Amino acid sequence: MTTTLLILSANPIETDRLDLASEQRTIEETHLKSPLRESFTIKTAPAAQWEDLQRQLTAVQPRMVHYIGHGEDDAGLMMARAGGGVQAVAGDRLAALFKLFPNVDCVVLNACHTEDQAIAIHKQVGCVVGMSQKMGDVSAREFAKGFYAAIFAGDSYERAFELGKLGISIRGDRIKPMILIRDEVKEPVELEQPSGRMSIESKFYVMRSPAEEDAAREVVKPGALIRIKAPHEFGKSSLMGRVVAQAEAGGAKTVAINFREIDREFLGTLNGFLKHFCVQVTRKLKVPNRLEDYWDGGLGSKGDCGEYFEDYLLPLISGALVLELDEMDVLFEGAGDKAWAIDFLSMLRAWFEKGRTSEKWKKLRLVLVHAKDIDQETLQQAQSPFNVGTEIELGEFNEVQVGDLAVRHGLEKSIAPGLMELVGGHPQLVRLGLYAIARGESLETLGATEAGLYGNHLRRVRSKLEGNSELKLAFQRVLADGAIDQASSAALRSLGVGKLRGNEVEVTCELYRQYFRSVWS
Question: H-helix or E-strand containing 87?
Fold first, then answer.
């Protein structure tokens, strides 16, 4: 697995000049001379601002972060401020940021007076290096040369630190770098039950590039619309939670609505649904309910709803409002006329269009989460919110990601191929398997039966298939390696039991193949 090192450098014009380029070049040259250089990737972010650090952590997903620049005791790291000037980033803000990126396990603050920042960051990161005194350019380069010569040779952080210190001491400098490191071997693994949306602090969250960076980039854009699409239990809500947390860190207000939690009495008529929708948003924003002042029927339900947002809710918010709508497939479940649901979606499309020109509507950012291709529900293209904005489609875990997740469970990477042979890269099935194995079960006992670990999941999928005769027939054809039509292909992929290989659909994993051949034989 390739380890990514992110080098951030900052030297605002208001601070003393540093030879940043020389230190970066030293690290890059050390990397090029390493026999293991193919195992490491270096990304750089010069003239870094606080916002750059947030963006780069999302986009690059580094395992190691190296900071070159100024530090100042309690004040923090000295970074450039957008528009000019210096911004001091204190340790508590750095710690809060790194808490969102558990993939980072080493941070090197190769700058003067960074002891306080190192201590704060260490609450979230396993290994942190800081400097308790002032240091010059040459000392910084010598430390970096010794440290990364060891890292790029595959040595431990402890040994790399000692070699970095040696490089400084040979020059006769009395600078005392500090290292804070956890004993990961002795520290027991605290497992996490694989169920529902993962907390943003979870160390078991797996980054799937470029999904996270695309979402983080888009959610800050005025009037943005983001569509997160994937089969059930693929981590859509967990990704959404992280995106929303980053938006909140930037000052946005957020409202989350899960359509699966809405009572059935509100699903059926446009007027009743939109009133309930407005009430939910109002309560989650913790502002007074003024629905009666706007809902007079003169503009129709969509018009009243839009006016309530435009003239009341949006003006109350100084920054952005991120509206996250989860489980949108619910709108088209069950029997009955779905014209009301189509009208709701066309209203969201209209709001998005307004956000292109209206300053009020630019405050609104929509995040829509769904599993199936809702555009097939007879929406006209001009009315659909599912053919505009940015689509983010989450895929399966790959073997590297499964191996890394195994290590986080206290297991060996070598378990990944065997587990994936059974469940493929299905995120929830992988997590269930690793959780069970970490608790003492063997891979051989997981099984493709309703009595096994995956029984509840298999029963749910079976119920979906057997509740739709056409879908069941299509999957039986896939089991028999037969061809199916495009609509059936999309439905099976949204359910997670089928995947494309070229133009053909195949069963996603051996678990489904074994189970359904057994129960339908």
Answer: strand 86-89
The residue written with tokens 């450039």 in the block is 80
Helix, strand counts (H, E) of the chain = 21, 15
pLDDT tens string 336-368:
788 899 999 999 999 999 999 999 999 999 999
Name residue, tokens 């528009």.
83
Placement of tokens 């495009």 in the chain: 486
CA-to-CA separations, 288 to 34, 215, 258, 273, 364, in angstroms, rounded: 63, 31, 22, 19, 19
Q: What is the pLDDT of residues 198-243, one digit of tens each?
A: 888 788 988 887 888 888 889 989 999 999 999 888 999 899 888 8
Residue for token digits 């890059």? Answer: 28
Q: What is the mean pLDDT of the chain?
A: 87
pTM over 0.70: no
Q: How far apart are alpha carbons 432 and 162 in whole angstroms? A: 40
Check whether 271 has a pLDDT greater than 70: yes
Q: Are 383 and 342 in contact (CB under 8 A)?
A: yes
What was the pLDDT predicted at 170?
65
Task: Supply the DSSP symbol for 193.
Answer: -
379 CB neighbour count, 10 Å cutoff: 18
Q: Strands 86-89 and 76-80, how do they pair?
A: antiparallel
The pLDDT > 90 percentage for the chain reads: 44
Per the listing, tokens 């997903």 go with 61
Q: Which helix (H) or strand (E) holds 129?
A: strand 127-131
- Here the tokens at position 444 are 């051989």
CA triple 166-169-175, angle to 5 deg: 110
Distance CA 206, CA 1 (A): 14
Q: Which residues contact 460 (CB under 8 A, 6 or more apart)?
A: none
Cβ–Cβ < 8 Å for 68, 9: yes
What phi, psi does 501 have (nearest 5°)?
-130, 100
Q: What is the mean pLDDT of residues 317-346?
A: 89
Tell me if 491 sits within 8 A of 372, measured CB to CB: yes
Q: Distance between CA atoms of 62 and 40, rounded to whole angstroms?
A: 10
